[in-house]
């Protein structure tokens, strides 16, 4: 897999995730020192879900995030374009759908809320994916994007990018991941990703309103929130 900005062919990215599916959840927990659990909870809380509402969890992978959302009492569906990831989460008892973020197989205004965690940067057209999410969300519905960000404190940003992403992450992946080479792509995709303010502008340009974000882990991760205009 080449540099992230040069190679986001959906088939290649799906195949890459198929290759890491077997130990994906374990690897995430190790790489984040367990913070992935907290980020899933904060995503659920930011969506402000109510029992009986319908929620789309896009790029859900093994559906561990979907199970977290279901704790709210909302009806949740996991969607991902990697069949390997969905199969790895087969034991999780939530609905699962194979889906392309650029061509969602859902009718207009199907959901009260939509979310995508650590998957938006893997889509070939960010704005188009966000517009598709807006299409399937009812007016007044909510969006939360949990994604890697750019640390706000310069010394931390330099250490995070040069040490954590380029050295530590690949070293850990070689020990615990089922396809360590895929994590070279992961590092590249994070380094190439938009800073928080620029992503907020893209979200607004895709048809969402009231866009805001909250930095986590010193800005290494960010929760972006938005509403579909009524």
TrEMBL record:
Xref: PROSITE patterns: SAM_MT_UBIE, UBIE_2
UniProt keyword Iron present: no
Annotated EC: 2.1.1.163
Residues at which S-adenosyl-L-methionine binds: 62, 80, 100-101, 117
Single biological process term from Gene Ontology: methylation
Protein purpose: Methyltransferase required for the conversion of demethylmenaquinol (DMKH2) to menaquinol (MKH2).
Record-stated family: Belongs to the class I-like SAM-binding methyltransferase superfamily. MenG/UbiE family.
Name of the protein in question: Demethylmenaquinone methyltransferase
């Amino acid at each position: 897999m080449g540099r992230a900005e040069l190679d986001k062919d959906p088939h290649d990215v799906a195949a890459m995730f198929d290759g890491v599916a077997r130990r994906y959840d374990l690897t995430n927990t190790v790489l984040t020192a367990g913070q992935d659990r907290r980020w899933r909870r904060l995503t659920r809380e930011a969506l402000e879900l109510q029992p009986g509402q319908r929620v789309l969890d896009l790029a859900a992978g093994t559906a561990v995030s979907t199970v977290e959302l279901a704790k709210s009492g909302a009806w949740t569906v996991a969607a991902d374009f990697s069949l390997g990831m969905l199969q790895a989460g087969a034991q999780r008892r939530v609905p699962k759908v194979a889906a392309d973020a650029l061509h969602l197989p859902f009718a207009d205004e199907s959901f009260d809320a939509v979310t995508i965690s650590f998957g938006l940067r893997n889509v070939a057209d960010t704005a188009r994916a966000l517009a598709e999410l807006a299409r399937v969300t009812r007016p007044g519905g909510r969006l939360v994007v949990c994604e890697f960000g750019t640390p706000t404190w310069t010394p931390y940003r330099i250490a995070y990018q040069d040490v954590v992403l380029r050295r530590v992450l690949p070293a850990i992946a070689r020990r615990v991941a089922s396809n360590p080479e895929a994590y070279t792509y992961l590092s590249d995709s994070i380094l190439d990703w938009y800073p928080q303010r620029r992503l907020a502008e893209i979200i607004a340009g895709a048809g969402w309103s009231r866009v805001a974000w909250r930095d986590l882990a010193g800005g290494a991760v960010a929760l972006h929130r938005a509403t579909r205009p009524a």
